[in-house]
Amino acid sequence: MIRIIALGKIKEKYLADGINDYLKRINKYHKVEIIELKDDVDILKEEKQILKHIKKEEFNILMDIKGEPVSSVELAHLISDKLMTFANINIIIGGSSGVTNKIKELVNKRISFGDITLPHGLFRLVLLEQLYRAFKINNNESYHK
User: Fold this and answer.
1) Which of 79, 80, 89, 136 could form a disulfide with 141 if both were Cys (CB 3.0 to 4.6 A apart)?
2) Which residues contact 35 (CB under 8 A, 6 or more apart)?
3) Which residues contact 72 (CB under 8 A, 6 or more apart)?
4) CB burial string 66-87: b at 16+ within 10 A, e below
5) Domains of the chain
6) How many Cα atoms are found within 13 Å in the side-chain-facing hemisphere of 101?
7) DSSP assignment, residue 41?
8) In angstroms, rounded to a whole number, what is the distance separating the alpha carbons of residues 87 and 10?
């Protein structure tokens, strides 16, 4: 299973609709679950919430603007490779203040979609689109470029 662990709720209907659309598309290939955690001004409270949902025996990815940049094809290969080895992949989207060093040290990989800053809801939609694209790539299916 792939779990997206994200702080904050989606408030905008158009984003929620897009997210739900991509979840339906992805779930034809693989089970994906979104775990929404309460965002907090106290980053240590957010840390505690995140820690409840990740385990060392799972593959944990942190979406981090300072992480390793990945292309769509590289993400597809990463997902394919890790799903063969691990029962679960957790993808963590931190809060507006980022995540603590403890979370950064616990994850297996820190990746980035580039240096731009996106609102959390829009980033979640972009992440799901990229996961859908990854499954299309891994299944040798066409998808618009």
Assistant:
1) 136
2) 3, 4, 5, 6, 53
3) 130, 133, 134, 137
4) ebeebebeebbebbeebbeeee
5) 2-138 (3.40.1280.10)
6) 0
7) S
8) 27
Calculate the CA 59 to chain-centre distance: 12
Q: What is the mean pLDDT of the chain?
A: 95
Cβ 92 vs Cβ 54: under 8 Å:
yes
pLDDT by residue (tens digit) across 40-99? 999 999 999 999 999 999 999 999 999 999 999 999 999 999 999 999 999 999 988 899
143 falls in which pLDDT band (50, 70, 90)? confident
pLDDT for the residue numbered 145: 64
Residue 116 makes CB contacts below 8 A (sequence gap 6+) with: none
Amino acid at 4: I
